[in-house]
Amino acid sequence: MVVSSLAHLFPAFLALSVYSGDRMIAGVFAFSGQVCHQEYTSRYSFLSSPDTGSSGYKHRHHRPLFASSSSGQRTSGGGATPKRSSREEELSGLASSLNIDVPKVKELLAKQRRKSGISPEKARRIDWLLNGRGLPKEDKVKEDQRVAKVATKAAASNSPEKNSKPAAQERGRSTRARPRRPAAVAKQEEDRQAQVKKRHDAALKDPSLLSNVDFSSRVDIHHSSKRALTEIMGFTSMTEIQARTYAAALSGKDVLGRARTGTGKTLAFLLPAIEGVLRSREYQPGLNIGVLVISNTRELAIQIGDEAEKLLTFHPDMSVQVVYGGTKKSRDETQLRRRMPTILVATPGRLQDLLTTTRIGARKFSEIMSTTPVLVLDETDRLLDMGFRREIDKILTFLPRSNKRQTLLFSATIPDEMRSIMAKTMKEDFIEVDCIGDGAETTHTNVRVKQSHVIIPTLDRYLTSVVDVVQEAAKDDEGRNKIVVFFPTARMVSYFADLFNEVAGTPVMELHSKKTQSYRNRVSKTFRSAANGILFTSDVSARGVDYPDVTHVIQVGMPESREQYIHRLGRTGRAGKAGKGWLVLGPFESQFLGELKSIDVQKDMRLADLVNGPPSTEAEDILDKTVGRVRAGDKKLTQSGERAYQAFLGYYLSQMKRMKMRKKDDLVRIANEISSLMGFHEAPSMTKRMVGKMGLKGVAGLVIREPSDEHHGHHEHSNGRRAGNNMKRQRRRRD
Fold first, then answer.
1. Is 80 exceeded by the pLDDT of residue 727?
2. Phi, psi (5° rounding) for residue 512?
3. Does pTM top 0.85 for this prediction?
C-alpha cells in the first residue's frame, strides 16, 4: 500500500480535482493513522479542499481515493509513521492507485503545475515528481521535525501511563470505529433517490410539457451534465423551452426565451450556459467567471444556485456562488478570493456593490467580470418593474460588449421598457424562443389551475372573511393541503401571520422582505420540503420560486398588475398537477376584475356563500379576542396592526387610479374602518413627516402624532416611501 509513502507529500495536492478526457480524478486521502491525520491538518490546513460558495454550495464531487485500515507502520502510541520513498516509487504508486500509466500521471501533474495561484510549496513538490529537482534542505528538516513532533505528541496522548482510559471513553463516547457509510448518509442517499423519482414521475404526468427529445440522445451535451440530469435531478426528457433554447443557444447566438411558469426555465438557460463555458476560449477556470446570472430576488437566486449545484455535480473543475443583499459583503469577497466560481448568481444591488468596490488580490472585481462570456437575465420584465433599470445599466458597463459575449434573456412579457434593454444587451440577430405564443402580452394561465374569485360584500367582514377563506382552503378536499396566501405588502403579511399564529392558533409561516435573510432561507426550505402547510407571503414568492405540490394559491387584495396575478398563480399547478387559485377582493377593489377579462376567473359560488353569510363562530371568536388584546395593550398585535395600517395606505394610494377612486379621503376612511376591526379606538397615528411624504397632507381622518412623539415612529418612515414619485423602487421595498 502506497499510503504511508504519500502521506507526508501529497494529501493537499490530491484534494484538488482534475478533469481529463473521460476520467475524473478526485483524490482525498482517508487515513486511519493518527500521525497522518494530524500531519495533514497541521501541515496542509491552508491548502484545504475547495471552498464553498457564499450560500453554502459545497462540492460533492470529491471521493476518497485511498482508504486503508493500516496507513503506515504503527507506533507504540497508536500513530503511523510516514515513510519516505523515491520519486519513481511515488509515481508508480500513484499510477497503480489511479489505474493509469506513469506518463498520464505526469501529464496530470503538469496540468496542475500550470495553474495560476499554486503555492510555492506545492509547486516544489510537483517539480520534484516531474523532473527530480530536490526539495530545499530546510524543507526536509522542517518536515522531519514536524512529523517527529506530531508522532511524539500522539504517542504521549495515548500513553497507558498518562491515560488509564482512552480519551473517547473518558468523554463518555463509544470507541467503536465509525462505519464508512453511517445510517445518516444512507438515509440522505435514500431521500435523494426518492426525490429524483418524484421529479421524474411528476414530469411524466404532464406530457404536454415534454418534447420528444431525450437528454441521452443529445450528443452535444457533456456526459458529466447528462449524468447529473439523470442521476441527480431525475430528468430523462427535455421540456419544450429546454429543447428549443438549447438548440438556439448552442449556435452561439443570443436568445430571448419566453415560457410559462413551471416548465423548466431555469434548466433551459443553465444547461446551454454551462456548455458554452466548456467550449469558450475566454473562460479560464480560477481566473474569471464563466456565467453571470442576474436574478430579481434573493429567493429566486438561491433556487437557481441549487439547480446549478446539482447540474455541476460531476463537473469537478466548476463551481457556483450566490451573492445577494442582506448578508455580509466580506463573506462574499472571501469566497471569491478562495475560489473564483464558474457560475455567479447575483441580485442587482449586491452585484453592483461588488463591481464598484471589491478587489480580488491585485485585480479589481470589475476587471474579472469584463471577460465573462455568458450573461443571463432571468425574469427581466420583473427586474425592470421592481426598479432595477439603473442598476442593470450600470452593471452592463462592466461586462464585455454585446458582440463579445452571449446573452440569454428570459421574460414572460415584453414591455416597451424592455426593448431598450434588449437593444443594449443583445445582438441584432438574436433568436426568440416563444413557448407562450401570445404575442407581446401575457394572457396565458395554467389550464390545470381552476381559478375563481370572490368579493367581500362589506368592510365589516374584511378580517373575518380572510380567516374563513383561509380555513376553508385548509380543509378543502379532505384537508392536508399546501397553501400559499399572497398579501399586497410585507406589513400586511406580518399582521395576518400574527393574527393566525397568536390569536387563531393556526400555525402559518410568513415570508417577506422585513425578515432577515437567514429567516427567509429557513422558511423557504421548510415550506419547500413540507407535505402540507400554510405560507403567508408578499411578492417575493410570486415569480420563479418553486414550492412543490402547492394545492391552493389565495390572493388577498388586488395585485399590482395583471401580470403579477398570473405569476402568483403559477405557484400551483406545477409539474402536471392540478391546483386552485382563489382571488379575494375587498368591496373597494372590484374594478380589478376588468383587468382579467381575457382570463376565465369565474365567481366562486361556494366562497360567495361563505363571505356573504354571517362569519363563522370561530372567525367571530378570533376577531373578538384580537380586539380585546389590542385594547388591553398587547404590544405585538398593536405594533403589527399599526404598521399594517400605514402599509395599507401606502400601497392603495398607488392603486387609486386602477380602483377608480378619486378622493384620498375615501381611502383613509376605508383604512380607518379596517383599523377599528383590528381593535384600535382611533386610527393609528402617523408623524407629520410621514403624512407629507405619502401626499396625505390635509386629508381628513388622519391622526397626526405630536412633534415630541415623532421619534417613536422613526421605524415607520420607510412605509411612507411607497407613495413617492419613483413607483418602481417602492415596489422593491414593499416586497
1. no
2. -165, 175
3. no
